[in-house]
Amino acid sequence: MDLQDRSFVRSSPAIGADGTVYVGSYDGTLYAFTSHGSGTNGVLKWSYQLEGAVSAPAVAGDGTVYVSANLGLYAISPPKSGSTGVLKWSYQANGALSSPAIATTLPSTSTTNTT
User: Fold this and answer.
1) 111 assigned to some structural domain
2) Fewer CB within 10 Å of terminal CB in the chain, N or C?
3) Using an 8 Å Cβ cutoff, are 107 and 73 in contact?
4) In this structure, is residue 35 part of a structural domain?
């Protein structure tokens, strides 16, 4: 599978240690694609469905992918098998979140309180 309608992808990509390319999408999905030079350039490896637009991802050294979507921060692991990522944990905030960033081993994000 590939993204037929690329207008939904508006985030900056992140590249994992194994070369996987991750992008967040307005359709509420985190996508993981094979990278250039892998022999299968741009093929969907797996995805994870969230609600709301998905931010630009950040990838930790252990392969965990961090994104924000729908007032939440999510930690998603690549699947051991299959085509759907695995939710490790999530945190619901009281305001909009920016794209996460990795500082050493912990994700970081900022929030805007809307109340």
Assistant:
1) no
2) C
3) yes
4) yes
pLDDT in tens, 3-48: 555 557 778 899 999 899 999 998 899 999 988 766 677 888 999 9
Hey, CA dihedral for 17, 47, 3, 110, is it positive or negative?
negative
> Interior CA angle at 46 toward 81 and 69, to 5°?
125
Is the model more confident about 98 or about 48? 48
**What are the tokens at 25?**
């999408």
Domain around 74: 6-106
Give the total number of structural domains in the chain: 1
Instruction: Give the C-alpha separation, 68 to 108, whole Å.
Output: 11
